[in-house]
Design goal:
Length: 187
């Protein structure tokens, strides 16, 4: 696993063995960021991200490598949160990051109270936890946190997380290999 592009291009990232972490593949991350920067290579510069179920931190780190200003990594697993910290340290990233070691729903509530205004919210819960997709997308659909943000959910391509959640509406869906990406915006 490596950083695809930007300041930290080709730098390796670590993962955990024997733990139920399924990092977003390099290929899928590349597709995600190609979609986000299509027609505007500087689209991520200065952006604010929330990386829910962050695992290794690969998606948030990719965003930082491509010019994001701030990334909130949300991960309830202590070992995964420590891994994110290790990956950030190995790249010399100390500014513009917050690691929230807590449940995604609690983190959403906390970030909303702090009036964080993200440009992107990425969520990648364990594929087997299909009910978590509906829970978190509904929470985001009802939350002011998702105001202007593009919400992206990574999921198994055989699973459809749904199209509408409160004020969130799916605007695009991409499948690649065994994975899918669903893109949502608030109405």
């Amino acid at each position: 696993m490596r950083v695809i592009a930007g300041e930290f291009r080709s730098r390796p990232l670590r993962s955990l063995r024997g733990v139920d972490i399924r990092p977003t593949s390099d290929r899928l991350r590349e597709t995600l960021f190609n979609v986000l920067t299509a027609g505007n290579p500087k689209a991520l510069v200065g952006s604010v991200w929330i990386d829910l179920f962050a695992g290794t931190g690969a998606v948030g780190i990719e965003a930082l490598s491509r010019g994001s200003q701030q990334v909130y990594f949300v991960e309830k697993s202590a070992s995964a949160a420590d891994l994110i910290k290790t990956n950030l340290e190995s790249l010399g990233i100390g500014n513009g990051v917050v690691i929230l070691r807590k449940d995604a729903s609690r983190a959403i509530a906390e970030l909303e109270r702090q009036q964080v205004s993200p440009d992107f919210i990425f969520l990648d819960p364990p594929y087997a936890s299909q009910d978590v997709y509906q829970e978190i997308l509904q929470l985001l659909g009802d939350s002011m946190l998702a105001g202007k943000a593009l919400v992206v959910a990574e999921h198994d391509k055989r699973f459809d997380p749904g199209g509408d959640f409160g004020l969130l509406r799916r605007i695009r869906k991409i499948e690649q290999g065994d994975a899918g990406l669903s893109f949502y915006r608030r109405e």
